[in-house]
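This week, think about what follows.
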Amino acid sequence: MGDAIFHRDGDLFVPSEFAGSPWYRGYVHGGPPAGLLARCIEQHVGDPAYQLVRLTVDLFRAVPSVPLRATVETVRGGRRVMGVQASLWAGEQEVTRASAQLLRRSDEPGLQPPVRVPEGPEGLPVTQGFARVREDGAVEHSPRSLPGFHATIEVAWATAPNAPHPAAWIRIPMPFIEGEPTSPATQAAALSDFGNAIAGRFTLEGQAGGSYINSDVTLYMDRDPVDEWVCLEVPYRQEIGGVGHVESIWYDRDGRYGRGVQTRLANSHRDE
């Protein structure tokens, strides 16, 4: 088998080592299940005239690195608006669930206010994962980081990681599912979990740092990204009493195309 995030085994999706979690061995990162659910929803709808405009993924338990089965159902069908629900199963246990809204594309005139796209990705240093690039160009990886999806992605920082509004270009440098082209919506959904990771690189004035996990992710997309490189900028995060949320703005080379929101939970008691 070649390098890919998932491999197919009949109706099952088998996570590879490149899908792994940064927190626990034997589990997958939150991004690959989100991307897999987006892919299965698109396959279920089967009509490119519909745009995936909103995807909410509930990460209510760690997803084990075992063959996963997907179930998808249309909960609201229509000529212009469609609602779809999908789940991933490890054996008989539901491990992740998503709800999606799809809208029919049209040739109606649009409005896209002018925005400044963050610098890059061309001309920026590219690392595997969120490694730190020192001023002398040397790359520093966290000695405690486990291998997995977070270390597989390619990252080009558009700002200093500790900037007030950190932003990074990200792409998946291999097929998401072996033998299949990766759709723009699948790629964006798989990368949507990283708003939380980028938010962890800065601290608000007067706020202590700390480790946070996210229990969900919602991605809004006005259009598909134009290619495999997408940029996440995190302008806002807040935590009160150990819970909070992160907002991220999404860009591609043509401008801003979406927004993400994630809820956060303090993770000071996780197992190492």
About this structure: The mean pLDDT is 87. The chain has one domain: 6-106+118-266. Residues 112 and 256 are 8 Å apart (CA to CA).
